[in-house]
Amino acid sequence: MSANDSLFDQTDDNTEALRQIDRRLLSIIHQRDQVVQTLVTEGRLPAVGQENLLLDRTVQDFASEIAPAVDEASLKSFSSILRHVSSHSRRQVHVGAVAFLGPKYSYSHLAAIKHFGDSADFAPVASIPAVFDAVHRGDALSGLVPIENSTDGRIVDTLGMFVRRHMQICGEVLLPIHHNLLASGTRDQIHEIHSKPQALSQCRNWLAANFPAATLIEVSSTTAAAESASMSPHIGAVASLAAGQAYGLSVINSDIEDRKDNVTRFAVLGKDECEPTGEDKTSLLFQVEHQPGALAQAMTVFSDAELNLTWIESFPSPDSRNEYLFFVEFSGHRADPNVQTAIGNLGTMTRRLEVLGSYPVAKL
Ligand SMILES: O=C(O)C(=O)C[C@]1(C(=O)O)C=C[C@@H](O)C=C1
Question: ACT domain: which residues (predicted)?
């Protein structure tokens, strides 16, 4: 008799109690799927970002009303379970695919799992522009792209696409990034280290100190690097542990990022409108006339409306040399009266103005 047979033959009270509980869990999830279906039919299914906040609130209520002794780690785990259940329900009603820079197990994929849950309909694509294209064409309902990293700054490909093509932001995700050096051979066999330029840059000092002779090769994503490492013992990859597992690689070194508090912020692309939650952010893109004082004057609309800026970046205009577009993010929702005033005033001072979106502020 195999170990599995003996498990299935067990009929003691506790094993049976567990099976009953699991059956109840499944039937409750099935019931939940039906409620989600009704919400879709009525056009009232909340945006993913908004539902995530409701799920977190449910966990908080559960902790205070039913299980006050539950610790922080368990609460995080409950929140993550509810996100996965929610992504399962959404998948049943075909809410649409989520495009991200693949292959699977890239950091973009891990950020997409954090936001959409692991049962979402994921659609990995080959580049950041391809994520924008998939959402623009309607092949994917949502997309997820890295926008800035705490060590390395802005992600140029992403900002360049916002400049070239109108796209809405309906959420953000913060993901701590811990890089690993992965290989199919031994440490001594590694001559080349592959990764996405941003990942190589986030480990610049570590790589220079530990592999001064290795050639650094830039590739389209960290998972693409892991794939190459699986094909040659001379290639090391800077990538996620999940990518290493997927491609059967050994971890030569873990946590090789130069800053231990390395975090990447991702933007969720899509047409979901998020209602104000009380802790929101608004993203804008604008271009002022090319004349003295134009930018300084434009910026006064934010201080006049008492809006706290959380991010500002300039990006060269694709049409005219020496001219720039500006990305600005501030606390507040586009439905707030002071935000409306600021946007209205900015509109009178700018050549181009796009409100990219208002969405709940992400938590780490
Ligand atoms: O290559 C990946 O795994 C990605 O998801 C892209 C990306 C990026 O371009 O910033 C995302 C997070 C990390 O900062 C490193 C790489």
Answer: 283-360
Query: How is residue 360 written in tokens?
Result: 């709940």
What's the token pair of residue 22?
């699991």
Q: What string of DSSP letters covers 296-307?
A: HHHHHHHHHTT-
> HSE (CB half, 13 Å, CA atoms) of 212?
1
Nearest-CA residue for atom 14 of ligand 1: 264
Question: Do 259 and 206 touch, CB atoms closer than 8 A?
Answer: no
At 94, the pLDDT band (50, 70, 90 cuts) reads confident
Virtual CA dihedral for 9, 13, 15, 17, nearest 10 degrees? 130
Residue 209 and residue 253 in contact, taking contact as beta carbons nearer than 8 Å? no
Cβ–Cβ under 8 Å, residues 163 and 354: no
What are the residues facing 328 on neighbouring strands? 284, 312
- Measured in degrees and rounded to the nearest 5, phi and psi for residue 172 equal -140, 155
Distance (angstroms) between ligand 1 centre and the Cα of 197 equals 9
- Find all residues with CB under 8 Å of 9, minimum gap 6, and list them: none
ipTM over 0.95: yes
Cβ distance 195 to 204 under 8 Å?
A: no
Task: Fill in the amino acid letter for 282.
Answer: T
Task: Take atom 11 of ligand 1 and give the residue whose Cα is closest.
Answer: 107
pTM, entire model: 0.91
215-218/309-316 β-pairing: unpaired
Write out pLDDT tens, residues 319-329: 888 899 999 99
Tokens standing for residue 202: 């986030």
| Residue nearest atom 12 of ligand 1, based on CA coordinates | 107
Give the Cα separation of 13 and 78 in Å (integer): 26
Q: Which atom of ligand 1 is nearest to the CA of 149?
A: 14
